[in-house]
Amino acid sequence: AAQDKCANVQCKDGEVCDAGKCKCMEQCPEEWNNYPRQLCVDGKTYRHECDLWRNKCYCTKSDSRCGGAEFGSHKPTDSIVVQYFDACRDLAAQCDWSSEEASFHARLAIWFKDLYSQKWSVASGKSDDLSLLSPLSLKTRASTTTLFNAPTSSPYGVHGGYLSFWFCEMDKNNNGNLDRTEIALLSQLLNPSTPCLNTFLSKCGSGTISLSAWNSCFKVPKAEEMPCTNFS
Question: Where is the SPARC/Testican calcium-binding domain (predicted)?
Answer without folding.
Answer: 99-217
